[in-house]
Specification:
229 residues; alpha+beta; 4-stranded mixed beta sheet; 8 helices; 49% helix
Length: 229
């Protein structure tokens, strides 16, 4: 059962870590490339702020974004801003998200996200937590996948394994960190099972498209090629 209040608190903690780290940068560092192709650190920060507002829209029953084009235009518009403006926007948009999350609501209701994807309202705080944690890593400022909270890493591996579960282009795959195990890809009777073993940071990095998977141990076949998220 999803504990949205716990996840809201986790988002708050993750946001504070992000704000503290970003606050140590300077204007020049914000313009430098992030780890995401084609995006500066300013693009990542702008996206995080606009995503917070987009998830407020979701919680309050409005479309997440006016359009994909408007989403991209907003990020491009906000990316070149000075560090102090980026920080203020991150804080204020994060506060709006927390306020929307704290408002009395039916957390069992179904909400609509980008591209017509639907989910339980109770999972929205975790989705925001994912955005804050992974994009903190994407900034390339010293926060790595190994620094992610253990609970978050386990839940995100579970979430991504479920996302690829049943995908016709992903062979039946067992993921394990040596203690826990997850299944993903096609049903096992569609072919031999591939086993992918490694620490949570490397499993998560591969599933989330942040690492190549070269540090993982693979048996039963080659490392599966994952479709884009």
């Amino acid at each position: 059962m999803i504990d949205h209040a716990h996840d809201l608190a986790s988002v708050r903690d993750a946001t504070e870590r992000l704000l503290t780290a970003v606050g140590k940068l300077d204007n020049a560092a914000v313009t430098e490339p992030s780890r995401l192709p084609g995006w500066s650190r300013g693009h990542v920060l702008a996206h995080l702020a606009r995503n917070a507002d987009a998830l407020v829209n979701v919680l309050e029953g409005r479309p997440m974004y006016v359009s994909g084009e408007a989403r991209d235009a907003d990020i491009e518009r906000d990316a070149p801003r000075a560090l102090d403006v980026q920080l203020a926007d991150l804080r204020e948009s994060a506060a709006r998200f927390q306020a929307a999350g704290d408002a009395p609501a039916d957390w069992s209701r179904t909400v609509e996200l980008r591209g017509g994807v639907t989910d339980s309202a109770a999972r929205v705080p975790f989705r925001r937590w994912v955005e804050v944690e992974l994009h903190h890593v994407d900034l390339g400022i010293g926060y790595e996948l190994e620094d992610l909270p253990a609970e978050f890493a386990e839940r995100e591996i579970d979430f991504l394994a479920d996302r690829f579960s049943g995908h016709p282009d992903v062979p039946s795959t067992r993921l394990t960190d040596g203690t826990r195990a997850w299944s993903t890809g096609r049903e096992a009777d569609d072919g031999p099972e591939v086993t992918v073993t490694g620490p949570p940071a490397d499993l998560l990095g591969w599933l989330a498209g942040r690492r190549s998977g070269g540090a993982l141990t693979v048996t039963g076949g080659p490392l599966p090629a994952l479709p884009p998220l």
